[in-house]
């Protein structure tokens, strides 16, 4: 109570002092109001003080504060609707809508990919174990079945361990063969992940090799069986073998979101013995009390022991223990998403600083009104509340307008990225995610609003009532200038980064891939298990027949069979060293890790890959120990491309004779550049999935139906899938960098426009406030050109200062390595172009205010003053 009384006496003293400093008519009005108001109790006085006059006492101050906020919101709505303020309101809404929509979109992507918990139990203890070969620079590699068995038998840091791999399988139905993606799993996978069947049961521990049990995903259950609970016990013919449905699994189980079937993982005798045949993904759950570092140390010891026991296959190979999410989301994708979040954060700062700059200008323009309100008793808290209420109203309206735009941007982003991140396929605007992003925007905007709110509260009653209209404007000028400079600095960073990314994308789009992509169609075919020489030979002949049939289609120039087309999903690698000595005795500089492909005789003709030496493979009788090297492989291993007849040793110990050298090609993805590649004949080996490639005379889409018809006749149980042109494959390979460049470019353009609008609006405001000064200059002989140049020079100086700070920021980013993957080689040219764009935009935005300043009529302006 004592503190409240002291505040009351202080407020009364302030009021008496105000009476002696304001003109007498206003003082009489205030004394009259005070004399007719009942003497307040202290809490009521404190509550009423924010309303600008003393109110009758209330039992509680909380309703009064709520009413004050409501009144401030209503007053802000009325002010924004005034004709003179509509332009400001529309500009603020447009910038806020763009900023909030960008934040919501990028945060939704980031949340789904990196932050949202995976649909597994206790994600923190779920690890992915992958192969690593530091000598070859290989990380995140698959695991062989024998190594997996050794890990599971020896490791004590894990309470459970399971393996799986993905494969397309043929499903025979009444209407023909269909293809579904399947997970081939060890029976323990569901238990390791901590996921349970929605219906029925999972695979039992004894349901391994040769089991007929089958699990279907919920999507297959809904689409094929309409969610019928009696689906258990029904049969499906998969790869020519009848299997019984024993359970229904969720669609998203962390390691897969689009697998329609779960099948027991079966190993051929060759796979059970070959430690170099690495095809499995492994997940494991840490034992209680065991850390990731402890598990990694144990796996290092086990890997060292395996390398000692099996030097031929396990030398230099080790295991990496990492959280499952790190395996599901690659480092490039994580970096790309964090870069987008940083870009959208900068855009949000530009948006909020622009809004704050406009509000500072408005506060200076309203100083007469604010001074009158203070003279009538309005407290500084109430004046601050008015600015905060106006900001809150704009943020709420901008967020409401931003949600539809964010939904559209999110659809565009998911369509581009879902090929590499299947979990994005079901992504939509989530209310919790949207609320979080909007809350961040609101807090940021309100934090910036504290600056104009503080300026508004500093309006002096005496200066305002004596019409000293420039006092507050002069005090807030450094803040306005600082905000404009900050906007141009951020816009410089964003625009330079966007142009550098665009330069990198242009380089990728015009890269020499080593093959011709025009009118080239690729079609994938899943093969059955090649568990006998007879099955292998039958499938090889069927593929050769299919290629021959494709060549008879009108409009087809050539056709070939290859294990995986360039820029495909699968990239299998092997070490290549000079023979005939074992690979491990060759010096490291003579060994190379190369992608390997299985091809037939027409591959190089169909893809247009030039042969630099030697010949292509023969049609049907090529010896299985022949090989064709890519140019970089030949130069690394032998130092020359003239190597026909030489012997190379593969990583698995096989020795092969070189019969040709081909030009280097892009095999993995466009961003990775040309890949060291070797080619083996189709007479030696087949993958589980092979590819038919067809080059046509016209649009490849015109031959798809004919290819399907011939495939149905030659291989009736093997459905075709993933039909696309090589141009589409190139576009898909560059989808991530392209999306990143486009989004950052949009953010950069938005930041540049917002900065230009901000400096243009503030320049127009300053011209309006300095009308009398400019009129006096004209009266004293100043020319319109000089005034126009003075206005443009002031705005240009702020823009140049911002660009200079942005340049320093770019230098710091480059020194820290933050521009390493963002087109750093294009950054100098990108910065020069961005400077030209920003300065031109600034001058264009300020040209109209400068033109108005040059057309001021001195007589009319001075008469108004």
From TrEMBL:
| Compartment(s) where it occurs, according to its Swiss-Prot or TrEMBL record | Cell membrane
Q: Which domain of life does the UniProt lineage start with?
A: Bacteria
Keywords of the record, alphabetical order, are: Cell membrane, Membrane, Transmembrane, Transmembrane helix
Q: How the protein sits in the membrane?
A: Multi-pass membrane protein
Keyword Transmembrane part of the UniProt annotation: yes
User: Which GO molecular function terms does the record list?
Assistant: transmembrane transporter activity
- Which GO CC terms are listed, alphabetically? plasma membrane
Predominant localisation class: membrane
Residues annotated as domain MacB-like periplasmic core:
91-301, 490-709
Specify whether Phosphoprotein is a keyword of the entry: no
All copies of domain ABC3 transporter permease C-terminal, residue ranges = 344-458, 746-858
Span-the-membrane segments of this chain are 88-110, 337-358, 392-413, 433-460, 481-501, 742-768, 789-813, 829-848
* Similarity-based family: Belongs to the ABC-4 integral membrane protein family.
NCBIfam families membership:
ADOP
Recorded hits in PANTHER family, A to Z, give: ABC TRANSPORTER PERMEASE YTRF, MEMBRANE COMPONENT OF TRANSPORTER-RELATED
Q: What is the name of this protein?
A: Permease
